[in-house]
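Throughout our pipeline, every protein is held as a single compact record rather than as scattered files. This encoding replaces a full spatial description with a residue-level series of whole-number codes. The remainder of this section carries one protein's record, kept here as part of the documentation.
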Amino acid sequence: MGIKDDAVQVRAQGWRTLAALHNLIEGELERALQAKHGLSVVEFTVLDALGRQDGWHMRMAQLARAAALSSSAITRLVTRLEDRGLLTRILCMDDRRGIYTELTAAGEKLLNEAHPTHDAVLREALENAARVPELQDLVTAVAPRDEN
């Protein structure tokens, strides 16, 4: 029993719409974060994931999942961020194969400086996308709701 062609088309259109919104937002974030803070979106994502650990650290595999990267890609990215003094790796004492990653003070400072830029650009990108008829429904579905 196969999927009807119209169902496939609806799913494909939904996927294309999601990809279009993602690309629009990511492009805006990339430009702003690079220009103002020297960070790529994925670098910001890694710092943000670590910053949300409440002073704790993450295993490399957890960090890879949080950033939607392969293990080899996260290793290269962590090395670059470590070389910049933004994070550090720590060997797990219980499991010598385990490596944790955590923010340095410089990484936390840069993250705190970049957050307002990220949040403002994200808000503006969603507002702009909401004016595109093909993206309106998706923006409504993903945009934060006012608590008032």
In short: The two ends are 47 Å apart (CA to CA). The chain is about 65% helix and 10% strand. Strands lie at 58-59, 87-91, 99-103.
